[in-house]
């Protein structure tokens, strides 16, 4: 299947799911999910993922893991997909009621990975390169995301020039595209490609502080 865009029904599907997150509602609208959400997202990833990585490409399950959650809503209110460069590192897409979210970076899978990330941020050479990358992304309309510790890590001075980055346990940059006529056409593929190209320096930087640390 070639990617032809995300029809308006894809975003409407999640708006309705937000109002009625029940198994009955899902069953009644499953065909909309399969044809308007999952199939186009898979097709887009299949079309462009190999331009950015040689690792696996995943479309996530729609079901929530409710075993340890007080919220027993059975379904996620978004559909995500991931083009993996290394374990936890790569390019991400998410479709929900608010549109398409395009992002890239890394999610730490172990405390040792976060420690290596912070060492790379505090290093003057690699840290300054990261600051240049993130400053440009923010200037281009991306926002930085990533869980942060409430206090500065031990040994990091209060006036460190990259304290905001050092406090992060993971780091991604993202940009949101609201539902539009353009997203309903094959041009949506170019939007994602352009954003992932902008995010490539961040992903490359993550990989540069050691494949052991990024994997």
In short:
It contains 7 helices and 6 strands; from the N terminus they run ααββββααβαβαα.
The largest sheet has its strands arranged as: 1-2-3-4-6-5
Largest sheet: 6 strands, antiparallel
| Order of secondary-structure elements | HHEEEEHHEHEHH
How many β strands by DSSP?
6
Query: Which geometry do the CA atoms define?
Result: globular
Q: Span from first to last CA?
A: 32 Å
Beta content: 15-25%
Total helices: the number is 7
Task: Give unreliable regions as ranges.
Answer: 211-215
Description:
With 215 residues, the chain is an alpha+beta fold. It has one domain: 2-Layer Sandwich (BirA Bifunctional Protein, domain 2), CATH 3.30.930. It has a six-stranded antiparallel β-sheet with strand order 1-2-3-4-6-5. Helix 4 packs antiparallel against helix 6. The chain is globular and about 55 Å long. The two termini are 32 Å apart. The C terminus is likely disordered.
Characteristics:
alpha+beta, globular, 7 helices, 215 residues, 18% strand, BirA Bifunctional Protein, domain 2, single chain
Per-chain topology:
Blueprint: H1 8-19, H2 23-48, E1 57-59, E2 78-86, E3 89-96, E4 99-106, H3 111-122, H4 124-139, E5 143-145, H5 163-166, E6 171-177, H6 187-208, H7 211-214
